[in-house]
Design brief:
single chain, about 170 residues, alpha+beta, OB fold (Dihydrolipoamide Acetyltransferase, E2P), five-stranded antiparallel beta sheet, 4 helices, 5 strands, globular
């Protein structure tokens, strides 16, 4: 009986402490970024616990910058969080684009786009990004969803419901 009470209490604690992730990258966020660059992730320099949370980890990884699309020169490293709630999954050899608003921003769900595992996929997706930024041409269907799934291990959350207009009649 005590075991059942502990399990039920633990389940309630988990629900009460569930985290909510920030909204993922959007076309609007891409267009509004002040600093945009593409890179290949090379290797992790450090991987340490994030504060007192032993599940979430802060990772600093070396990158090879491929192009600077907008803003100041990109850094030689990126900082991101993995594990825990809303952690980012990046792997060495993957091609990525960062869409940052402020210098020193951590890359993650709200500002990172997975571009592919090889140069051909990178070039194809980057061409779509340039079209979005230059001519406001929407990204091909599924680009943001595929990126989210690759980086975070599941489908993106559903969009926020639109506010309903109330009739005054």
């Amino acid at each position: 009986m005590k075991l059942l009470v502990l399990i039920l209490a633990g389940g309630g604690w988990l629900q009460a402490h569930a985290c909510e992730c920030i909204p993922p990258l959007s076309e609007t966020g891409m267009r509004e970024a002040n600093r945009i660059y593409t890179f290949v992730l090379l290797e992790s320099e450090s991987d340490r616990p994030r504060g007192t949370n032993m599940v979430a980890r802060e990772v600093v990884s070396k990158v090879r910058v491929l192009s600077r699309v907008r803003g100041e020169a990109p850094p030689a490293t990126v900082r991101y969080y993995r594990g825990g709630c809303c952690g980012t999954r990046m792997r060495a050899g993957g091609y990525y684009a960062a869409f940052l608003r402020e210098p020193g921003d951590t890359v993650g769900m709200e500002n990172l786009l997975y571009l592919g595992e090889n140069e051909r996929a990178y070039a194809r997706t980057l061409a779509s990004v340039h079209a979005l930024l230059g001519q406001a041409t929407p990204l091909p269907r599924g680009v943001l969803e595929a990126s989210y799934e690759r980086l975070y291990g599941g489908p993106p959350p559903p969009p926020e419901p639109k506010a309903r207009k109330h009739s005054t009649k």
